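Rotation project, supervised by the postdoc (A.L.). Task for the rotation student: set up a whole-complex structure prediction and record inputs and outputs verbatim in this book. Inputs entered:
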Amino acid sequence: EVQLVESGGGFIQPGGSLRLSCAASGFTFTTYAMTWVRQAPGKGLEWVSTISGSGTTYYATSVEGRFTISRDNSKNMLFLQMRTLRVEDTALYFCAKGHCSGGNCYWFFDLWGRGTLVTVSS
Amino acid sequence: SYELTQPPSVSVSPGQTARITCSGDAVPKKYSYWYQQKPGQAPVLLMYKDSERPSGIPERFSGSSSGTTVTLTISGVQAEDEADYHCQLVDSDSTYLPVVFGGGTKLTVL
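Outputs recorded:
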């Protein structure tokens, strides 16, 4: 089955760290860029970070220097290491697969997971 | 960076046509994408490159672009279409904000 399953969310105090994971199945993981998108309670979607199949990384300015995206292509896993967490990082974090066709890959997402909730609060 | 503006909510009766807009200065220069998100579920890609429908998406969903506004149209709305809808633009020339989402629109089927 083609799917993405996130895990690792939880309750954490400001300044703490958390590592999110996303297990991918049903497609050739190495081919696709993978992305983390978050959604704060009652808010819209916000792009967080993307990693290409070869490992090039991109970050939103709001998380650069604090979050690190990585992937393990041998295990079809995507990760997001989050450090120095802030209250404003509270959100549902989605893992999403980038779209590729005709040998080209694009910055939109044709498969999403259900998300894992991160709550940052004292 | 640029912003995308969506109405917070749209309401329609079953069988009517719903139009959800997404506006921004960058719209004329970039392709738009739309996602449907039902409570507790993963977002689903509804539309790409303004008006292309992925396989499996019903024909009642269509997309268009005019000026600084892109529009998702749902013809013959059904109760199952009640969901949040998010637009997205891509700025592939930007390495710090290549992806921008609108604020999302909640579609209520009366």
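Student's summary: Chain A touches chain B through 27 residues (CB under 8 Å).
Supervisor addendum: The CA atoms of residues 18 and 82 of chain A lie 5 Å apart.
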